[in-house]
C-alpha cells in the first residue's frame, strides 16, 4: 500500500492522536493504529488532497511550537492548542478543527478487515464484531442487529439486483473515436438528460470523473467509502476553508451519497407559506420558468423514482424525537413563523417497503448504501438509459473532461461543439469527436471549470449554498439513533429548515463538537445522542476562483444561523435533552435549565464570524445561471449555453438564485424540463 505521509508527517499525526483523545492507555486502539488508518484513507484519495493535507498539518505543527510542542507532556500540548484557539483569529488555527476531524476519522473509522477486494462478503462485518472502537461505544454493525424479519422490521441483507452490469461500461481500450452526444457527469442532472436523450434514439456516451461502485462492493467501512465516493475524500472546502463542501465523485454523483430527500421548490403541506417564492425570484431576475412545465417534470421524475413519504419505522427514534420536541417548543412560542411552520416526514426515492430493495434503515446513506436499497441514479435513470432505452447509452467511468472543442459556427453565428478532451488518472488523454451535441452536468464547480476552460465567459458566478450546521444533544436514556434512516423528519420554519440526522461512528465524530477528553466522553455516550441540523440559504455569494469555490458569508447570514441554532437548541431541551453540543469551534456545552433568553444570548456572544462554527454544504448550485439576457446568464431559458448551437447545461449550476431546500429533485426536474420529448440537437 502506498503511504502518502512520510515518517516525519506520520510522527506528527501520531502525536496529534496522543493529544486529541484521552491518555493513550484509555484509547480503544493505539495512536500508531490511528496513523495506519489515516495512511490507508489518504492512499485512496486521488489528486493533491493528501499532499495539501500534509503541508497543512506541518504548518499547524510549526505554529504550535514544532519540536517544543511535540516532545512536551500531553498537558502542555493541550494547553498550547487551547491557548492558540482562544487567542487567535488566524485561519491556520481554525484549521486545527479540520485536522482534529481527520484524526477522529482515523480512530472512529477503524476497520479490522482492510481487504476491500472482498467487500461484497459479509465476512467483513463479521470480522468487525470484535472492533474495539465500536465495542467501546456500544455500536452494532447492521448485519448484527436484532431484526424480526417482518415488513415493519426487515432483516438486513444485500440486494444487488439493481447494480449496473459491466457491459454498460466502456473500457479504456474501447473508447469510441466519435459519438453523437456526450453527457459530462452522471449525477442528478446528467443521468436524467442521458435517459431522455437515449429514449429519443441518440447515441449517448456518459463520461464520469469518478469510478463506479456497485452495492456489491460497498461496505460499512466508512473511511474506505468516503475516500472512494467523495471528491477530495469528503474534506473539500471553500477557498477560505470556512465551509466544507460535500460532492460525490462516482457514477451517479452525489445521489449515491445523499439521503434521497425529494423536496420541491414549493408544495402545499411541505413548504412554509411565508417562505421565499423561488420561481418568482427567478422571474424577477430575468429567468422565468413555466411552473406547469416544471410541475410535469417533477411528476415524471417522481414516478420513475417511486418518490413517496417514508415509512414511519425509518425514523422511529431520532426522527420522531425531533417532531415531538418541535411540538413542545411551538406550543410555547409566540413567533408567527413558528406557528405557521410546516413539519413532517421526508418524501424520498427509497421505494415502497413491499419492494425487494426496500430500505432496511441501516444508517449508511451518506457513504453509499452497502445493501443496494437506494434508487440513486445508477439504479434508476442510468439503468434505464443503458439497459432499456431504444438506443442504449454507455458509460465511461473514471475519466475527466478537461474542455470542449469547437469547429466553426452555424448559420446563426453560434459556436458549434465538435469534441471533448478526456483525461485519465494516469495522465493519458483522448479526444472524442461529437457529431450532435454536448450536455454539461458535472456539478456546479466542475461544470463552471469545464465551461471556462472551453472559452465560455461569465461562468462560476453567483453560486448559492444551502448551508448546514449540526447540533447533537445528550438524552437521559439510550436513543440508538444509528439504527434508522439518517434523515427522516423536517421542520420548515420559513427562513431556515431543521432536519433530523444521525451518522455512523466516523462521520458522527466529525459532527460532535468538543476537544480532548470531553469529545471522547461525548462519543462514549454515542447511544444516548439525538441529533438534528439547521439548513439555511446563502444566496449568490460564491464565485469560482482558480478552480475553487470562493464563498464569504455576510452578517445577515450569520444572524439567520444564530436564530436557527437557538431555535434547535430550545427544541432539544423541550424534548428532554440534558446537554446540547452546538457545532462551535471551542465545543462549549449547553445545559438543561438555560432560559430562552440565555440561549439567544449565548449564540450572539459565541458566533462572531464563520470560523467560530463548523459549517458544511451538500447543495452547491448556480454559477451558470439561466437568463434570457446573455449579459446576465450563461445559459438561455432552455439551458443552452448562450452563443452556442449544441451545448446544454443540465445540473444545479443553472439555478439563478438559492432554492432554499435540498437540491436533488429540482435538479432532476430542471434537466427533464429541457430534455424530455424534445429533439434537443436536431
Characterization of the model:
- The protein has 682 residues and is α+β, with helices and mostly antiparallel strands.
- Helices cover 33% and strands 16% of the residues.
- The chain has 21 helices and 20 strands.
- Strands 5, 11, 12, 13, 14, 15, 16, 17 and 19 form a 9-stranded antiparallel β-sheet that branches. Strands 1, 2, 7, 8, 9, 10 and 20 form a 7-stranded mixed β-sheet that branches. A two-stranded parallel ribbon has the order 3-18.
- Helix 3 (49-64) packs across helix 6, helix 6 packs antiparallel against helix 17 and helix 12 (291-305) packs across helix 21.
- The model has no long low-confidence stretch (mean pLDDT 94).
Summary of the model, kept short:
The protein is 33% helix and 16% strand.
What attributes does this structure have?
682 residues; alpha+beta; 9-stranded antiparallel β-sheet; 20 strands
The shape is globular
Would you tell me the overall average pLDDT? 94
Largest sheet: 9 strands, antiparallel
Helical segment count: 21
Structural class: alpha+beta
- Helicity range of the residues? 25-40%
Layout of secondary structure:
Blueprint: H1 7-20, H2 31-43, H3 49-64, H4 67-70, H5 74-87, H6 91-108, H7 123-127, H8 132-137, E1 178-184, H9 188-199, E2 204-207, H10 222-229, E3 243-245, H11 278-284, H12 291-305, E4 308-309, H13 318-331, H14 336-339, E5 342-345, E6 347-348, H15 381-387, E7 394-396, E8 400-409, E9 415-423, E10 429-440, H16 444-453, E11 461-474, E12 489-492, E13 497-500, H17 505-511, H18 516-524, E14 529-545, E15 548-551, H19 555-574, E16 579-580, E17 590-591, H20 596-606, E18 615-617, E19 621-623, E20 647-649, H21 664-675
Amino acid at each position: 500500500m502506498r503511504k502518502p505521509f512520510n515518517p516525519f508527517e506520520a510522527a506528527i499525526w501520531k502525536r496529534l492522536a496522543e493529544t486529541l483523545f484521552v491518555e493513550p492507555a484509555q484509547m480503544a486502539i493505539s495512536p500508531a493504529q490511528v496513523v495506519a488508518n489515516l495512511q490507508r484513507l489518504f492512499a485512496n484519495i486521488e489528486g493533491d488532497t493528501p499532499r495539501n493535507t500534509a503541508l497543512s498539518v506541518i504548518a499547524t505543527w510549526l505554529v504550535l511550537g514544532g519540536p517544543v510542542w511535540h516532545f512536551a507532556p500531553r498537558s502542555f500540548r493541550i494547553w498550547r492548542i487551547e491557548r492558540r484557539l482562544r487567542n487567535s483569529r488566524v485561519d491556520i488555527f481554525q484549521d486545527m478543527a479540520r485536522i482534529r476531524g481527520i484524526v477522529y476519522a482515523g480512530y472512529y473509522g477503524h476497520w479490522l478487515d482492510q481487504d476491500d477486494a472482498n467487500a461484497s462478503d459479509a465476512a467483513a462485518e463479521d470480522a468487525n464484531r470484535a472492533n474495539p472502537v465500536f465495542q467501546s461505544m456500544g455500536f452494532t454493525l447492521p448485519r448484527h442487529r436484532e431484526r424480526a424479519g417482518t415488513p415493519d422490521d426487515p432483516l438486513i441483507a444485500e440486494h444487488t439486483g439493481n447494480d449496473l452490469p459491466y457491459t454498460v461500461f466502456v473500457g479504456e481500450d474501447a473508447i469510441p473515436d466519435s459519438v453523437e452526444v456526450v453527457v459530462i457527469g452522471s449525477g442528478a442532472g446528467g443521468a436524467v438528460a442521458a435517459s431522455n436523450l437515449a429514449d429519443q434514439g441518440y447515441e449517448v456516451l456518459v463520461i464520469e470523473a469518478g469510478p463506479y461502485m456497485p452495492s456489491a462492493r460497498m461496505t460499512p467501512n466508512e473511511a474506505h467509502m468516503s475516500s472512494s465516493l467523495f471528491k477530495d475524500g469528503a474534506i473539500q472546502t471553500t477557498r477560505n476553508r470556512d465551509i466544507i463542501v460535500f460532492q460525490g465523485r462516482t457514477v451517479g454523483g452525489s445521489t449515491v451519497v445523499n439521503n434521497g430527500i425529494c423536496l420541491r421548490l414549493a408544495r402545499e403541506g411541505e413548504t412554509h407559506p411565508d417562505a421565499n417564492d423561488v420561481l418568482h425570484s427567478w422571474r424577477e431576475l430575468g429567468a422565468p420558468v413555466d411552473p406547469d412545465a416544471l410541475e410535469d417534470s417533477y411528476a415524471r421524475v417522481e414516478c420513475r423514482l417511486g418518490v413517496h413519504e417514508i415509512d414511519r419505522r425509518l425514523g422511529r427514534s431520532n426522527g420522531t424525537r425531533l417532531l415531538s420536541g418541535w411540538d413542545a417548543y411551538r406550543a410555547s412560542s409566540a413567533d408567527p413563523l413558528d406557528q405557521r411552520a410546516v413539519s413532517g416526514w421526508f418524501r424520498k426515492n427509497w421505494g415502497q417497503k413491499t419492494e425487494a430493495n426496500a430500505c432496511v434503515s441501516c444508517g449508511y446513506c451518506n457513504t453509499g448504501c452497502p445493501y443496494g436499497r437506494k434508487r440513486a441514479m445508477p439504479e434508476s435513470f442510468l439503468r434505464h438509459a443503458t439497459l432499456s432505452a431504444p438506443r442504449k447509452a454507455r458509460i465511461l467511468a473514471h475519466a475527466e473532461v478537461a474542455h470542449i472543442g469547437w469547429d466553426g459556427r452555424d448559420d446563426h453565428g453560434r459556436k458549434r461543439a465538435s469534441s471533448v478532451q478526456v483525461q485519465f488518472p494516469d495522465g493519458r488523454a483522448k479526444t472524442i469527436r461529437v457529431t450532435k451535441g454536448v450536455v454539461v452536468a458535472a456539478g456546479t464547480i466542475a461544470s463552471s471549470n469545464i465551461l471556462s476552460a472551453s472559452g465560455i465567459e461569465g461562468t462560476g458566478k453567483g453560486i448559492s449554498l444551502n448551508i448546514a450546521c449540526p447540533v447533537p444533544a445528550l438524552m437521559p436514556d439510550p436513543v440508538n439513533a444509528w439504527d434508522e434512516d439518517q434523515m427522516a423528519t423536517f421542520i420548515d420554519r420559513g427562513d431556515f429548515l431543521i432536519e433530523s440526522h444521525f451518522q455512523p461512528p466516523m462521520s458522527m465524530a466529525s459532527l460532535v463538537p468538543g476537544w480532548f477528553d470531553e469529545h471522547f466522553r461525548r462519543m462514549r455516550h454515542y447511544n444516548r445522542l439525538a441529533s438534528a441540523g439547521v439548513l439555511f440559504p446563502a444566496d449568490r455569494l460564491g464565485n469560482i476562483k482558480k478552480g475553487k469555490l470562493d464563498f464569504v458569508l455576510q452578517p445577515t447570514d450569520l444572524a439567520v444561523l444564530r436564530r436557527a441554532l437557538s431555535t434547535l437548541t430550545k427544541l432539544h431541551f423541550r424534548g428532554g435533552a440534558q446537554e446540547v453540543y452546538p457545532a462551535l469551534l471551542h465545543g462549549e456545552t449547553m445545559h438543561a435549565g438555560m432560559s430562552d433568553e440565555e440561549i439567544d444570548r449565548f449564540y450572539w456572544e459565541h458566533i462572531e464570524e464563520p470560523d467560530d462554527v463548523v459549517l458544511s454544504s451538500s447543495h452547491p448550485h448556480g454559477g451558470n445561471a439561466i437568463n434570457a439576457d446573455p449579459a446576465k446568464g450563461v445559459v438561455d431559458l432552455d439551458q443552452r449555453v448562450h452563443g452556442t448551437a449544441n451545448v446544454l447545461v443540465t445540473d444545479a449550476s443553472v439555478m439563478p438564485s438559492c432554492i432554499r431546500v435540498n437540491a436533488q429533485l429540482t435538479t432532476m426536474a430542471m434537466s427533464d424540463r429541457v430534455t424530455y420529448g424534445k429533439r434537443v440537437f436536431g
